[in-house]
Amino acid sequence: MARIPYFDPAKAEGRARAAYEKLPNLNIFRMLGHSGDMLDSFIKLGNSILVYGDLDPVLREIAIVRTGVLRGSKYEVYQHEAISRKLGMSEELIKGIHEGPDAKVFDDMQRLVMRFTDDVVKNTRAADATFNPLAEKLSYKEMQELVITIGFYTLVSNFLETFDVDIEDPDHKSGVKLPGMQD
Prior knowledge:
mainly alpha, 9 helices
């Protein structure tokens, strides 16, 4: 149960009101409404990561789900496992994210992303041992997107856990659809 009441989107003003007109009815957004116009900026950064980045969507979701696992955010993991499935990721791959970088299901690139994500979440600054092999395979832009993604979803996980945001009922239709997702 949430630690504070969810915000009533009908009471939103300014940029938050405009943001709510486009948002799916998810508890994370209902909780974020108390932040006022910050909601709009939060959504813009999240959309930049999820919709407009160059990083491969599977690698992005591996990093997001792994960040949620490491930060202990059940809501984050739940929502992004659903997105991962819509992208066509197998249950075996999703399970491997929980197991860790040495899970047999990962290809070389996925394993590098897992190790890098673990390192950044646990140590803030990635060691050369996890940074350099990945930097040889990703562009500078993709590397920076990956770090921004890990950082943003660390913030999201902290927010979700601090306010005990409830996972929606399994029959809840969120309306979340990203480019490249299967129906």
